[in-house]
Amino acid sequence: MKNKNIIGLLACTFLFCFGFTINGNLSLYFNISGLLIVFGGTFGATLLSFKTEQLAIVFKVLRTAYRSKTKKETEIIQILIDLSIKSRIQGILSLQDEENETSILFLRRALGCLVDGYQADQIRDILNTEMYFFKMRREDSERVLRTIADFFPAFGITGSVVGLISMLGGIGDTSIILKAVPIALTSTLYGIVFSNFFFLPFAAFLRERTNQELLLQKIILEGVIAIDSELNSVILKTKLESFLTPSERLETLVSYNKIKERFNITV
Known about the structure:
Elements: H1 3-21, H2 32-49, H3 52-67, H4 73-90, H5 96-101, H6 105-115, H7 120-169, H8 174-228, H9 233-240, H10 256-262
Helix pairs in contact: 2-7, 2-8, 3-7, 4-8, 4-9, 6-7, 6-8, 7-8
């Protein structure tokens, strides 16, 4: 995560927790029975729904998404332009070194197809398949996170029902009612907080990261196809910058005088 995100998260978490302490003791919001019901029920349902191997993959994907940084679109475009120039000067086989050195797996895969002499339509088909199943795997991980997020409020309500039943069973005994009320209220609180403050944001972040990586892969795909067709590096730069927002494009606007000179405009 970026430093700005971390600072903002810490500030918002402080405000969130501070809101609990303004009108009461923070210890009032901790209840062991409520925690056991919500977490035990949620993770029990999760284990019934998914294999442990799949859950391990989701944890690994999420950890990697938060800890590793992706390259910017402008960096990928510059790499592809450099590769295009090198290819035109030294030939396609000179990209073998780049294939071995690059740390971008998808780019390494694309360069491998290029160096091995695959046709353009074959390269496009292979990389499109790679992108499709990458997206499918990420959507599967996102689905797991959203399912867990749905379990939390459900078992929060379960804890509330348990507390209400205990209250009804203790009618006439004030001590039993006072013990049951925190279970009923805190269980719902835990379910809502852990669903909306953790697992739904995890799923949203994973989707955002997936979309960003798919964009980079699309840029790499188009760039490698252009390198294979020996497209001029200037034209390649113009083509790949179509993926960027206007503010990210490095090119400057062409002056009107230059346009008149290029097309012999006398007016």
